[in-house]
Amino acid sequence: MAEKSEIIQAIQQICEEKGISYEHVIETIEAALAAAFRKDFGEKNQNVKAEFDAETAHVRVFDVKTVVEDRDLEELEKQLEALRVRREVGEEISEDEEVERFNPKTDIMISEAKKIKKGIKVGEELVQELEIPSEFGRMAAQTAKQVIIQRLREVERETIFNQYKDKENTMVNGTVQRREGRMVMVDIGSTIAILPPEEQMQRENYNSGQRYRFLLKSVEMTNRGPQIVLSRSHPDMLRELFAMEVPEVSAGTVEIKGVSREAGMRSKVAVWTADDNIDPVGSCVGQRGTRVQTIIAELNGEKIDIIEWDEAPEKFIENALSPAKVKEIILDEKQKIALVKVSDDQLSLAIGKAGQNVRLAAKLTGWKIDIEGAEIPVVEGDEVGDLVKEESIETESNETEEPKKETKQDKKIKSEEEKK
């Protein structure tokens, strides 16, 4: 028999490593011992439960049954069969007509129970201690070990799931552990999470040992345990970063109304406040840009445009297209299309590199945006994620005519002129 200190120490180590409570470990050990006894020595109608004393390592096994009223089993079977037939034909059964079943494994009739323990009443539990054979320890060891491992794994998975489920859409710190194809495995503390390709940022390599902040996008329970999906590209990551770096955002004084993002390249963030004494854009930028620069550094140089949200669509679209200066905006309310007019020197700025500025503005505002004078398709906010097109403004051709080849006659005339 193991010493008290060894048993307690082993249980405490499991609790620390797996993040499981002491009571859960004891319950798991007792369930494993009961399963082992039931497999090798139990009888069909025994409801076996085990008690384990961690201090002495002593095991006791019991058959536990609930005392019920005396029943005529044949009559009970007829009643249950009649109810089953009525259900099959679609007849509704009221609660009053339901018949309580009798399970010989967990129930015992009062007349039988009184033979074992006088004075027992209906509803009480009849607990009978079972004799443990001398060979129980050896035969049960392997079964108990397997059940303990399985149960502890289940409890560990449930603990991890509950721990991270409440953290969905929040920031977590993690260290890149390894790559599996295009998938990145990230250590976030008590478990390993995944960063799928579609949630990764452009121009980030994710080498082993690198530390990043991630948005905890989702937590789902699968057959192999909880699956935790992280993101570096989700727009909500910007929301969380601003909440961490800007006190006015975390306090709710400044509200982030919208985010459009091409992760790793450029983003636009619309901010607003009801307090006339607060500059929402200035609050997010910070003194000398310190606040926004911290976020840009976290996102490896991703450019961030902070604009002021406005309930007037014209003003909001104008702000969203910054840094370009807009001359006029004509709105089609029914189709939700905005025709934007800018001066010639602002055209390429309004469109942006590869159409990026107008795409982000359309996604942020939710309007289709057509820049007058630019031969690009109308950009719709809901579809901009699929549009990666270069500017299609016509430019003058720089091509020159191919020089005419010199003939033999031309060479002869040229030679004669040189002699003269």
Overview of the structural elements:
By secondary structure, the protein is α+β, with helices and mostly antiparallel strands. It has three domains: 4-160, N Utilization Substance Protein A, Chain:P, domain 4; 167-233, Nucleic acid-binding proteins (OB fold (Dihydrolipoamide Acetyltransferase, E2P)); 323-395, GMP Synthetase, Chain A, domain 3. Helix content is 36%, strand content 24%. The chain has 13 helices and 15 strands. The protein has a five-stranded antiparallel sheet with strand order 7-6-5-8-9. α2 packs antiparallel against α5, α6 crosses α9 and α10 runs antiparallel to α12 (356-365). It is elongated, with a radius of gyration of 37 Å. The protein starts with a helix and ends with a helix. Mean pLDDT is 83; it is low at 377-405.
Topology:
Elements: H1 4-18, H2 22-40, E1 48-53, E2 58-68, H3 73-88, E3 107-109, H4 110-116, E4 125-130, H5 136-165, E5 171-180, E6 183-187, E7 192-195, E8 211-222, E9 225-231, H6 235-245, H7 247-251, E10 254-262, E11 266-273, H8 280-285, H9 290-298, E12 303-308, H10 313-320, E13 328-332, E14 337-341, H11 347-351, H12 356-365, E15 368-371, H13 408-419
Parallel strand pairs: 2-3, 11-12, 14-15
Antiparallel strand pairs: 1-2, 2-4, 5-6, 5-8, 6-7, 8-9, 10-11, 13-14
